[in-house]
Amino acid sequence: MERLFDTGDQAPQRATVPLEDEPLAARMRPLELGDFIGQEHLLGPGSALRTAIETGQPHSMILYGPPGTGKTTLARIAAAGAGAAFEEASAVNAGRAEVREVIARAEERRRASGAGTIFFLDEIHRFNKAQQDALLPAVEEGLLVLIGATTENPYFEVNSALLSRAQIYELRPLGADQVAELLRRALRDPARGVADPPEVPGDVIDFLAARSGGDARAAYNALELAADTAKRLERPVTVELAEDAMQKKAVLYDRAGDKHYDYTSAWIKSTRGSDVDASLYYLAVMLEGGEDPRFIARRMIVLASEDIGNADPQALVVAVAASQAVEHVGMPECALNLSQATAYLALAPKSNASTKAIARARADVQREGAADPPSYLQDAHYFGARKLGRGVGYEYPHDVPDGVSDQSLLPEGMEARRYYEPTDRGFEEQLRKRIADVRQKQRKNGE
Asked: 206 near 102, Cβ under 8 Å?
């Protein structure tokens, strides 16, 4: 296989590391599209990606998805059938100088033999803007077919100019049944799979497949370690050995990337939807992923007013209290405070009447400008204010029957505007009755 600093024009071959020394996940990597499992939504019959690979004419693309879903494998399969030179690099340790070398070799190949070049760039999201820009001319003129791989949303991490020149394919986590089939293949394949495999019961396969979270590499690694341990102990692989090999699955959560936004969105929508279990689950994901608990608390305060409002005014009190608890206690103990607040917010009656009310009022101000309040409402505390009519004629509510004046308090011409329309849910039902009562008293006192 031609690496970043190689100059040969060979299609990708297996690396020079002896086969038996490679990890199980590398040994079991499919070499043909027919052996590839998963991503049916991208590789169905007649699909653009499948057609491009099968005809040996891959286009520039970015493969986006979680670890262990086949991004590198797809890139190598695409390159193998293309009859092109294959250059491979990781953006972790390659820079603009290395990219220029790849481009220079691609130009020399084209001049010498007319051969094309496929450049596979793993973790492309780690390239900065200048590094990504260095690829643009070569990709645009077709000198390089770029295949980038990333676990981060490319729309957040990759330059728009480069995105416009590449097709985005989103890979999904494998299903548990698909991971289980891959593990069974590893146990059946004497050449590339687990050497002299011990007995591995079906419940162990099912456990590893379920616990892997759709990450085939993680499942392979755990199977290999559990099998090696079982062979040393001269016993079958048990669920206990598999669990020890798997350990705790790392939470795929990037506080600066799209996972941050995805799980925040899921938490907000689950809480708004009054599903307390879903709300607590997404809270757990954020906490396990290392999210700043102060950020979570701030979102709770916003949600308390945006989605609950006066249907339960206590929700805002609870959210603010949780935020203060976070500051006083910190992690890990403040997870308890956030859990309590999350449960309360999820189960509180919901209303966005306050949100809609301020939106309507602000829209009027933005469209029409700020109308002056009636002169009798304006400040009358400075010398000469009365001569200007400020405060003159103001009717003090405590001096009228029921404490409700019929005096119009909106600007002139806006007396009939209505912004706040409470629902009939929770405490807002009482507010609706209060508004109706106030308006009735205003009419009565105005007669």
From this structure: no
CATH class of the domain comprising 258-347: mainly alpha
Q: What is the reported pLDDT for 406?
A: 83
Rounded Cα distance between 405 and 374, Å, is 15
- Say whether pLDDT at 37 is over 80: yes
d(CA 335, CA 330): 8
Q: Say what the pTM is.
A: 0.64
Band of the pLDDT at 11, cuts 50, 70, 90?
very low
> What CA dihedral angle connects 58, 62, 66 and 69, to 10 degrees?
0
Q: Where are the domains of the chain?
A: 19-170, 176-246, 258-347, 376-446
> What secondary structure letter does DSSP report for 308?
I
Cβ atoms of residues 296 and 338 within 8 Å: yes
Q: CB of 65 within 8 A of CB of 171?
A: yes
Cα separation, 105 vs 10, in Å, equals 13
- Cβ atoms of 40 and 146 within 8 Å: the answer is no
The CATH superfamily holding the domain 19-170 is P-loop containing nucleotide triphosphate hydrolases (3.40.50.300)
HSE, side-chain direction, 13 A CA sphere, residue 396: 2
- Token pair 């643009």 in the structure block, residue: 136
Both tokens of 224, joined, read: 């290999």
Task: For CA atoms 57, 63, 68, 72, give the dihedral sign.
Answer: positive
> Distance of alpha carbon 402 from its chain centroid, rounded?
54
Interval 43-69: pLDDT, tens: 999 999 999 999 999 999 999 998 899
The chain-wide mean pLDDT, for the chain, equals 88
What residue type is assigned to position 143 of the chain?
L
Q: Which residue has the higher pLDDT, 337 or 1?
A: 337
Q: Which fold has domain 176-246?
A: Helicase, Ruva Protein; domain 3 (1.10.8)
Question: pLDDT for 315-346, tens place per residue?
Answer: 999 999 999 999 898 888 999 999 999 999 99
Closest CA to 268 of 301, 219, 235: 301
**Tokens (6 digits) for 177:** 């049944």
pLDDT per position as a tens digit, 363-391: 999 999 998 898 888 888 887 778 788 88
Nearest Cα residue to 423 out of 316, 337, 326, 309:
309
Nearest by Cα to 306 from 259, 354, 358: 354
* φ, ψ at 63 (rounded to 5°): -95, 115
